Write the structure tokens for this entry.
Amino acid sequence: MSSLPFGLAGIMGWPVAHSRSPAIHNHWIRKYGLNGAYVQLPVAPGKLALAVPGLAALGFRGCNITIPHKVDAMQLVDEVDIMAKRMGAMNTIVVQPDGSLKGFNNDGFGYIQSLIDAQPDWRADAGPITVLGAGGAARAVVLSLADRGAKEIRLLNRTFDKAEALANEFGVPVKALPWEERHAALADVALLVNTTSQGMHGQPDLDLNLDALPKHALVSDVIYVPLETPLLAAARKRGNPTVNGLGMLLNQARPAFHAWFGVMPEITEELKQALIATF
Ligand code: ATR
């Protein structure tokens, strides 16, 4: 047994069995020789208000928060970080030294870092950006791109009202366009992002014609099962650089692990392969 103090963290959601977070964090706990565990915390809707305040008493350093609790958990912590407030959702709780709870959202950090990992000289202001979808993932993507200095973000969603609401909320660089214009909205872009569920395992392919997309544009999908969505495969075949959703998943986990266990963990090929083996 290690003499280091035992550290406990987990993933709170409903369901949580499909989550890859335990595989990621337990890999890092082993790799850095820490004494601890990252466990599943299946908390049914309606039980969240009982579960969250119990974290400190149970000795947890904190936890991740996933569907369906990302919004409701914000009311149950003592403090919410500014980024999570702006995103309107939380994905991480950190138990503070005094036992109080602070909520964070690292999804935007994870997304931007996944682009930089793929293209170290990537810049948000390299050209117009087209984002498809206006759900929770889109909020993190659009907000983080705007914060990084994006000058024009074309936002297209099947339900136009949701794209318009996001554009109104996030302001100047974000412009909502009708879903029917998604093919034409690829002209001149430096980055195309899919945040819809289309192309995910078990879902139909995204209906998108890439003809107008410049060949140098970076194409990114927040989906990681499959690792290469039909969109990314089509983009790769015509010569576009691509980024899959695994990088966002792995990079959002790093600051949380650091806050709980005191080590900023690395994303290695070994970790990627271990995760891919679980898909
Ligand atoms: P997440 O948190 O992963 O973003 P979500 O909030 O459920 O998940 O959002 C799913 C996104 O996929 C939404 O933008 C949704 O569009 P609607 O707002 O119109 O529902 C999009 N989506 C789901 N099914 C789609 C389809 N068949 N065609 C196009 N977009 C679709």
